[in-house]
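Predict the 3D structure for this chain.
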Amino acid sequence: MIIDAHAHLSNTDYGDTSTYLKLLKEAGIDQGVAVPGAMLDVRKMTDYITGRAKPEKPIPDNKYVENAFKANSNIHGFICINPHDKDVEQQLLKAKRAGFKGLKLSPMSHQFSFSSKGIAALASLCGEYGFPFYTHVVYSPGASTAKLVQLAKQNPKTNFIIGHMGFGPADQEALEAAKTMNNFFLETSTGNFLHIQESVKKAGSSKVIFGSEYPLSHPAIELEKIMKLEISDREREDVLSTNIKNLLSI
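Done. Predicted structure below.
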């Protein structure tokens, strides 16, 4: 089995559910984990990274993702919550009852610190609910890899997934955290081949999770990186399905 553990779905002509399902089938990928997309127009990602553009739609369309996983048994959903909202705990509980299986945060869209009260509440609840806590990191003191690692240490019952292998092409802080902490995992989408290879070697195949970053990247292209890794069949199975299956209890 192959599971894409990170895709963005949105009601757009470049990131809709039907296109994603078509690409999964063509790539031979069995299931996908979806989060809301289109808060940032990924076709202009460099403008957001450099600060030349601001998020146009910072409100995540969680309903679109909910509709996707309720209509398609091979899609699982993570809810995206703005930690600045006053009702984050209620939002997460409502998501659990609706069938979501994890939490996705977007520091580029919502510009927060991992040390904020809202984040602390969400991280703790994720441990209670069995929700993985997925986020990427940015070049910002409040939303850095170091801050995320600190949050993970404070919440040992919560499983944390750092998107895109961390910050930059070879995030050693993220790799060291995955190597030494039971609750810290690396997600591969848009990561480079050598760093993924080294991460499996140093942290172990049980700490690396395959993702595609659809629609910014193509599921088949991201999958090919995993298929080219010089690892055993068992290790490849860990990366492609076993790890995310265990985290989501599917």
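The chain has a mean pLDDT of 95.
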